[in-house]
């Protein structure tokens, strides 16, 4: 339960953080299922879909790197909840 308490505290601090809700749901699932990712596939897919949308939105913003007024380089994730874009896209291609 420590992970879920940390996640709820983090969500209060970062209420506007993109994909944080999905990341916390995944963490709760992993904690409840003894870190068995195969039991949390739906949560993982939701997180990666959310992250993919963030990266797509950034690209649609004429490549300026601005999302909701923030700046991000190509090598950085645009959310602390999201892995790098290449990781997200590779995972989604392998898990349609």
Task: Explain the overall architecture.
The structure is a single chain. This protein is 57% helix and 4% strand. The chain is mainly α and 96 residues long. Helix 2 runs antiparallel to helix 3 and helix 3 (41-60) crosses helix 4 (85-94). The longest helix has 20 residues, at 41-60. It is globular.
Give, in spatial order, the strands making up the sheet with the most strands. Answer: 1-2
**Helix-and-strand structural type:** mainly alpha
Total count of helical runs of at least 4 residues? 4
Question: Spans with pLDDT under 50 lasting ≥5 residues?
Answer: 11-16, 65-75
What percent of residues adopt helix (DSSP H or I)? 55-70%
How does the SSE layout of this entry go?
Layout: H1 2-13, H2 20-32, H3 41-60, E1 66-67, E2 70-71, H4 85-94
Antiparallel strand pairs: 1-2
Helix pairs in contact: 1-2, 2-3, 3-4
């Amino acid at each position: 339960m420590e992970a879920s308490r940390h996640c709820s505290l983090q969500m209060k601090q970062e209420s506007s953080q993109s994909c944080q809700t999905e990341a916390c749901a995944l963490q709760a699932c992993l904690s409840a299922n003894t870190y068995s990712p195969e039991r949390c596939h739906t949560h993982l897919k939701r997180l990666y879909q959310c992250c993919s949308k963030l990266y797509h939105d950034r690209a649609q913003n004429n490549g300026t790197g601005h999302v909701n007024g923030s700046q991000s380089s190509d090598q950085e994730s645009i959310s602390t909840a999201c892995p790098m874009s290449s990781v997200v896209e590779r995972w989604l291609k392998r898990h349609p």
